[in-house]
Amino acid sequence: MGRLFVITLEGSIYSCKHCQTHFAIAEDIISKSFHCRHGKAYLFDKAVNITVGEKEERMMITGLHTVVDIFCLGCGSIVGWKYEAAHEKSQKYKEGKFILERYKVLGPDGSNYVGSQELAGSDADDA
């Protein structure tokens, strides 16, 4: 494997809470109203400095999706997932988009969101 280069972003940045590696900028947020097993999440159009896991089918509240988990390039921690395919017509807008779980990232102001470990109704929960 070749050498990995970390991309530095400018502006309102979302970064890894463990190692501060940059992931995305605020201008690329599509939605702030997503939920996951650990609380709130953001849907982004683009993300950088990540690696992806294996494709898998997940049944979520919004239907069946093909997803890959995404990991921080800096420290290796799982930070969310990428939608590879949506099987429901109404969910196709998610394809190619990234979910960053709020409790795993630092916001542009350096704040760290503390999520609920018992949130129901998550898009990531098995239906």
Question: Short summary of the structure?
Answer:
The chain is mainly β and 127 residues long. The chain has strands at 13-16, 22-25, 29-36, 39-44, 50-52, 56-60, 63-72, 78-86, 98-101, 105-106. It has a single domain, classed as Metal Binding Protein, Guanine Nucleotide Exchange Factor, Chain A, CATH 2.170.150.
Topology:
Layout: E1 13-16, E2 22-25, E3 29-36, E4 39-44, E5 50-52, E6 56-60, E7 63-72, E8 78-86, E9 98-101, E10 105-106
Antiparallel strand pairs: 1-2, 1-10, 3-4, 4-9, 5-7, 6-7, 7-8, 8-9
Could you describe the 3D structure shown?
With 127 residues, the protein is mainly β. The protein has one domain (13-106): Metal Binding Protein, Guanine Nucleotide Exchange Factor, Chain A. It is 0% helix and 43% strand. The chain contains no helices and ten strands. The protein has strands at residues 13-16, 22-25, 29-36, 39-44, 50-52, 56-60, 63-72, 78-86, 98-101, 105-106. The strands form two sheets. Strands 3, 4, 5, 6, 7, 8 and 9 form a seven-stranded antiparallel β-sheet that branches. Strands 2-1-10 form a three-stranded antiparallel β-sheet, with no helix packed on it. Strand 6 (56-60) and strand 7 (63-72) form a beta hairpin. It is globular and about 35 Å long. The model is unreliable at 116-122 (pLDDT under 50).
Q: From N to C, what is the helix and strand string?
A: EEEEEEEEEE
> Helical residue percent?
under 10%
Structural class: mainly beta
**What gross morphology would you assign?**
globular
Strand content: 35-45%
CATH topology: Metal Binding Protein, Guanine Nucleotide Exchange Factor, Chain A
Most strands sheet: 7 strands, antiparallel
CATH homologous superfamily label: Peptide methionine sulfoxide reductase
Pick out the low-confidence regions: 116-122
At CATH's second level, what is the architecture? Beta Complex
Number of helices: 0
The oligomeric state is single chain
Distance between the termini: 38 Å
Q: Number of folding domains?
A: 1
CATH class category name: Mainly Beta
Compute the average pLDDT: 88
Radius of gyration: 14 Å
> What's the total number of strands?
10
